[in-house]
């Protein structure tokens, strides 16, 4: 099966310089919709859905492979190899920022710089580290996903309607953006929120931009500061934007910060 | 709820302040970044506070941690991308008395230039509903567990059938060769008849075992495999008919062959298919009328058709005719295991052919047809 189809890779824009956008947990490539227009005149924009998300090929989901973020990182390298991409400016949101760091560790040559939007290398508090969550809170999240507590109607809509001839009903019930298979969402949540990748931060030598939001429940300000301290070639920008998705809540501010960083790097 | 006394009995004069505050569901209005600007009394009471206490809190702070993460990573992005979400189950974190499940709907209001202005959320209490859903989930889990247990049992049963069939073959083979050796010796008339009974009965038993083995193999995944070769269909069918006449000596089998070419098929399997269909016709057809064995083979197709007279196949039997262990008449000892037609249809499938059935007051016929491509 083609990697392009597996990850629902889409390519837009004109230009030789590649920008690759990777969405985070709970979303798909649609989340870049307010950011990409600002770049497609000057860059070749590559977007994709992680396997299990959006319009990726769900049959390619492998519980062993995606039990660790390494599986997702390998996919990014595979996409770059399949498309023969070089000198990529990688933009990753949330967990995909960390997946990007891991991909850069496997194949440093294919990346030029890393833009990390609301990243966190570890969500759970530890001695001398504020991740934002206590271990039992993450356990509670996983438990609520386990009992299929979340997204009941979104998950059930298509299942109830099944392959019936009333397809329009299923479509009406489920959301067209950020579709999630409940089983895969559960597994992705486990993989994401139990991750601790703090040890790889010092290995990243590529120029990196950390875009930290002001009031982000998922990645509090201490996390951005921690990353900046531990990544030798990093720039930290603390944005006015609040929440976890500045690409949706403050696209102008996000775009401006990315452009300023890229200008500086030229 | 401390409700104001409605100022008028006319519903048209509804006081919308009162409607907002004293409602059967919670209302929350946030700014575009999801900071709470207004919350009605119902929602505030559920959260064990008064509306003022929640101003400028982030909406997701009201939710238990699962919902909080879900809101920030999925629901809020959805609001920004599609403008709404519906019927999401989350829990209010702190009601002063533990968590409370709610259904949450959200809507984003935008300006003409697509700039988000504020967001509206409606909260419905879902305690009982949640319990009902949990019961459904539990029932589904139980059903799935039982089903998977039953499936395992079925596999074990079928493996047992396969082993039993296999192990019966050897002693039966010994009986058959003993009968054959006996037949070659000088025998009294009476003994000759007994040896014939031995021979035909053990042959029939052998066929039943073959069918059982094929059935088990089919169910256990390997299916019926065929080794095609060019076969003279007329000769093959006559051989099969001769064999069956041993068991039904008093019956007449008529032939009507129009065979122009050799047929590419598995000799043994087509013999088995024909034998099963013929045995079926001899068992269920009228005892006084002949059974007709027709065959056609030319460049475009070949077919084998077996017809008998007698009572038609009852309508209710039609749907299950080719199902394993289907028996037309549960009381008839002649029926065997009910695998004959099932095996025949599996052999037909393996040859990319099809068996069709016609049954009325005059005639019942089974036709196996293969289109040559």
UniProtKB/TrEMBL annotation, chain A:
Keyword Hydrolase part of the UniProt annotation: yes
The UniProt entry, under InterPro entries, shows:
AB_hydrolase_1, AB_hydrolase_fold
Q: Where is the AB hydrolase-1 domain?
A: 18-250
The entry's keywords: Hydrolase
Task: Kindly indicate whether the keyword Hydrolase belongs to this entry.
Answer: yes
| GO terms for MF | hydrolase activity
Q: Which Pfam families match?
A: Abhydrolase_1
PANTHER family annotated for this entry? ESTERASE-RELATED
Member of which family? Belongs to the AB hydrolase superfamily.
Q: What is this protein called?
A: Hydrolase
Identify the species of origin. Answer: Pedobacter psychrotolerans
UniProtKB/TrEMBL annotation, chain B:
Checking PANTHER family in the record gives: BACTERIOPHYTOCHROME, TWO-COMPONENT HISTIDINE KINASE
Q: Is Membrane there in the keyword field? A: yes
This protein's name? histidine kinase
* Residues in Histidine kinase domain copies: 163-373
> Record's GO cellular component, any one?
membrane
The EC class name is: transferase
**Which keywords appear in this protein's UniProt record, sorted alphabetically?**
Kinase, Membrane, Phosphoprotein, Transferase
For molecular function, the Gene Ontology terms on record are: phosphorelay response regulator activity; phosphorelay sensor kinase activity; protein kinase activator activity
Q: Which Pfam families match?
A: HATPase_c, HisKA
């Amino acid at each position: 099966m083609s990697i392009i189809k597996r990850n629902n890779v889409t390519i837009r824009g004109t230009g030789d310089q590649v920008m690759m956008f990777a969405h985070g947990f709970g979303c798909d490539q649609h989340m870049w919709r307010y950011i990409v227009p600002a770049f497609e005149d000057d860059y070749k924009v590559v977007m994709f859905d992680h396997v299990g998300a959006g319009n990726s090929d769900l049959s390619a989901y492998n519980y062993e492979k995606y039990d660790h973020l390494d599986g997702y990182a390998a996919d990014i390298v595979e996409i770059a190899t399949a498309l023969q991409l070089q000198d990529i400016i990688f933009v990753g949101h949330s967990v995909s920022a960390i997946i990007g760091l891991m991909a850069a560790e496997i194949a440093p040559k294919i990346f030029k710089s890393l833009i990390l939007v609301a990243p966190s290398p570890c969500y759970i508090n530890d001695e001398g580290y504020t991740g934002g969550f206590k271990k039992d809170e993450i356990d509670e999240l996983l438990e609520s996903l386990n009992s299929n507590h979340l997204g009941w109607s979104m998950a059930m809509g298509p299942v109830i309607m099944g392959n019936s001839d009333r397809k329009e009903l299923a479509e009406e019930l489920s959301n067209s953006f950020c579709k999630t298979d409940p089983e895969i969402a559960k597994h992705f949540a486990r993989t994401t929120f139990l991750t601790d990748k703090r040890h790889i931060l010092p290995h990243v030598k590529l120029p990196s931009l950390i875009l930290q939001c002001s009031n982000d429940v998922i990645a509090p300000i201490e996390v951005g500061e921690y990353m900046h301290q531990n990544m030798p070639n990093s720039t930290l920008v603390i944005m006015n934007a609040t929440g976890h998705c500045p690409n949706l809540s403050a696209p102008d501010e996000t775009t401006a910060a990315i452009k300023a960083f890229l200008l500086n790097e030229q | 709820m401390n409700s104001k006394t409605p100022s008028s009995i006319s519903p048209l004069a509804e006081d919308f302040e009162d409607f907002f505050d004293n409602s059967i569901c919670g209302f929350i209005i946030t700014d575009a970044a999801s900071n709470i600007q207004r919350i009605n009394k119902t929602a505030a009471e559920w959260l064990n506070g008064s509306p003022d206490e929640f101003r400028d809190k982030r909406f997701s702070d009201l939710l238990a941690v699962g919902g909080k993460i879900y809101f920030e990573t999925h629901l809020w992005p959805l609001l920004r991308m599609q403008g709404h979400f519906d019927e999401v189950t989350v829990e209010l974190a702190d009601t002063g008395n533990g968590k409370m499940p709610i259904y949450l709907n959200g809507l984003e209001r935008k300006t003409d230039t697509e700039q988000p202005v504020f967001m509206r959320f409606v909260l419905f209490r879902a305690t009982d509903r949640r319990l009902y859903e949990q019961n459904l989930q539990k029932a589904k889990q139980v059903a799935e567990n039982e089903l998977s247990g039953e499936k395992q049992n079925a596999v074990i049963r079928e493996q047992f059938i396969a082993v039993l069939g296999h192990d019966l073959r050897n002693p039966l083979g010994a009986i058959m060769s003993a009968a054959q050796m006996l037949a070659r010796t000088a025998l009294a008339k009476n003994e000759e008849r007994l040896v014939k009974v031995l021979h035909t009965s053990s042959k029939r038993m052998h066929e039943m075992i073959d069918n059982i083995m094929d059935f088990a193999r089919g169910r256990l995944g390997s299916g019926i495999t065929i080794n095609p070769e060019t076969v003279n269909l007329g000769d093959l069918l006559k051989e099969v008919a001769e064999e069956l006449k041993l068991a039904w000596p008093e019956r007449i089998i008529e032939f009507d062959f129009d065979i122009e070419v050799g047929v590419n098929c598995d000799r043994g399997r087509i013999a088995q298919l024909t034998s099963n269909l013929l045995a079926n016709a001899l068992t269920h057809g009228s005892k006084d009328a002949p059974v007709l064995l027709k065959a056609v083979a030319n460049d475009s197709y070949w077919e084998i058709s077996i017809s008998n007279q007698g009572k038609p196949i009852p309508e209710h039997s039609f749907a299950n005719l080719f199902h394993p262990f289907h028996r037309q008449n549960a009381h008839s000892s002649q029926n065997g295991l009910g695998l004959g037609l099932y095996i025949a249809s599996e052999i037909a499938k393996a040859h990319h052919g099809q068996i069709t059935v016609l049954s009325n007051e005059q005639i019942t016929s089974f036709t196996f047809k293969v289109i040559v491509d």
